[in-house]
Amino acid sequence: MEDLQISACRIGQVPLSPEPCCIVLFGASGDLTRRKLVPALFHLFLSGQLPEPCQIFGVARRPYTDESWRQGLLEAVQRYGRKPLPTAESWARFASRLFYCQGDLSDPTTYGRLADYLTRTKPAELRHRVLYYLATKPSQFAEVVEHLHRAGLLRPNPEPGWQRVVVEKPFGHDLASAQALNRNLTQFVSEQQLFRIDHYLGKETVQNILMFRFSNAVFERLWNRDAIDHIQLTVSETAGVGDRAGYYEEAGALRDMLQNHLLQVLALVTMEPPVSLDAEAIRDEKVKLLRCIRRYTPDQAGQHVVRGQYTAGEMDGQPVPGYRHEPRVRPDSQVETYVAARLYLDNWRWSGVPVYLRTGKRLARTVSEVRIQFRSSPHVLFAAQCNPTPAANAVTLRLQPREGISLRFNGKVPGLDLRVRPVRMHFDYNAEFGAYTPEAYERLLRDVMIGDPTLFLRGDEIETAWAIADCLRAGWQDRPLSEAELYPAGSWGPPASESLIQLTGHRWHEPLLLT
Question: Which of 199, 261, 304, 379 does the annotation list as catalytic?
Fold first, then answer.
């Protein structure tokens, strides 16, 4: 019997374990810190992936003490963290690393107090390696970085040690604002120190895309226009806008999801093989791919992209309001909660292959997947005896829930007649490996600490993605929503979306329902 072997490799030439450091969380009283960052740091600590020693400082306006901040974080980890939940002993050991610095982020004296905290940190080596995480409003990114620089806490080329800055999305709201933000930040910090985070890239299946493509010759040889008919990328949510209406009224689905998550996944699925697993080699290929995406004029964009907005409907048998009746939403809002686009990649590998992207809120199911639809085989062999004719093969990369990969092919139905039916082979991460899958923020925080930028966005990558989003948005700029662009909550989107894909003889495939 053939032995099963597990090969280990590391993307990028970086250390395999983090060095002792300080972590400073700006926006320490906010939802991101409570729901994602501190639970992730706690589980890194439990798994031995948090460096020893390591100290974590929170900075925010609320009048917490060290103890009251720690207590609030304990409640957050118990509520939002994955298992195992903290015990009294494990939390006490982790909480001894947590310290709070009160202050307004626009006040220079706040950074003076933070400098005093860091100066008193022991051992002294921690002061030379500092991770600054900006879990703040995007409008504060440049201000916080400038204050850190002027307080002597952030330099472009620190010696000894390192200083790194993590910024959350959204990184700008269009190409011009992203370029301006890049210019403002790089006045005080180098590109190598900036880690622009997109938590989608921390998902296990997203990372497995490169491994799946480039380590399996059976698929890589088919990964081109000769074998593939089209590609569909779906990211759907059952949730409505919730308490994010203030942000969503300014952003919409295209800026919130397509410009970052969907384009990043598309780049990994369709990029050329990098010359190495070095971080910059991988990011170079992603940027090259994004630059190949065809740019549309406003008139062309109107033919290749549609938007939508959910109206009242039912979710799980319960009535839910339409977007315009959500709290803090304008009653005449024209903001899109759904967007679908047909893109073309103008390069040798993908010339003529349409790529369909769709994302939206209040859709039938919460799911993220990429479907690679292969060209149909000639039907002359089976046409006389098989009805319907055999379906096209497809590979589905499922990002959430139940991360895994499915292959659809045709098989004969048992019996005396010659009947064919599509069947699936499915690889499930949990079933195969029987181990936990780290949360995306756990992986990404660890990567920042070891200095691996592979899963983070480079400045030119951000700007290229915004250029694509801007040209798509021009297709409906200043035009009110039509009836064909409205869809009831609980459906799969507006009628205009179906018309878009049918123009090229395709149809949306409903995402896999796995039990």
Answer: 261
